[in-house]
Each structure stands twice: as C-alpha cells, then as structure tokens.
Amino acid sequence: MKNDTSKTKPPSEDEQLALWSKRRVELLIAADFKCSRCGNRFHTLRVRQAYELVGIPLWDYPDSAFACFCEGCYRKLSRLFDESTPAGVQ
Ligand SMILES: [Zn+2]
Q1: Ligand 1 centre from 49 Cα, in Å?
Q2: What is the pLDDT of residues 22-77, one digit of tens each?
Q3: What is the pTM of this model?
Q4: Residue 10 Cα, ligand 1 centroid: separation in angstroms?
Q5: What DSSP assignment string belongs to the chain?
C-alpha cells in the first residue's frame, strides 16, 4: 500500500529538526565551513537566514537565503538583526 500521507501531513517536530539539521550541514559544506563575515574557518558555525519566505519551510529556502557565521560574528550581528529568528535556527 502506498503511503501518501507524507505529502499532505506537515512534518512532526522531530522530522522538522531532522530536515533542518540536514539542510544546515549542506549549507555549512557549501560555505566551506567559513564564516561569511570574518572568513575564518570553524567547525561550528551558526546558520542564519537573511530573510523570511512566507509559506516555505526553512529547509526549503534557497542557499542564497542563508549565511554562516562564527559565534563571535553571529553575536555581533544578532544585535543588528531583529529578533524574529524562527525556532530551529542555530
Ligand atoms: Zn566570523
């Protein structure tokens, strides 16, 4: 029997987390683990989306919608951005 519920049913919180984790790793690899601001290479970078797209889940955003920052730059920039970070963004 074919399971069609995955198309219409929104992903559970766990599935959303898994989807975002996967997407996040893709973005980090695409960024070559370099901070977009200072250009230094880090194992742990924070991914931040540059804008919000209504009706599109975070993991379906295009690469251009994201930037990767090291902890220091992320903190500096977080003061400049508004606080509308969706849950799940790290
Ligand atoms: Zn940096």
Answers
A1: 16
A2: 999 999 999 999 999 999 999 889 999 888 999 999 999 999 999 999 999 999 98
A3: 0.72
A4: 35
A5: ----HHHHSPPPHHHHHHHHHHHHHHHHHHTTTB-TTT--B-SS-EEEESS--TTS-GGGS-GGGEEEE-HHHHHHHHHHS-S-PPTT--
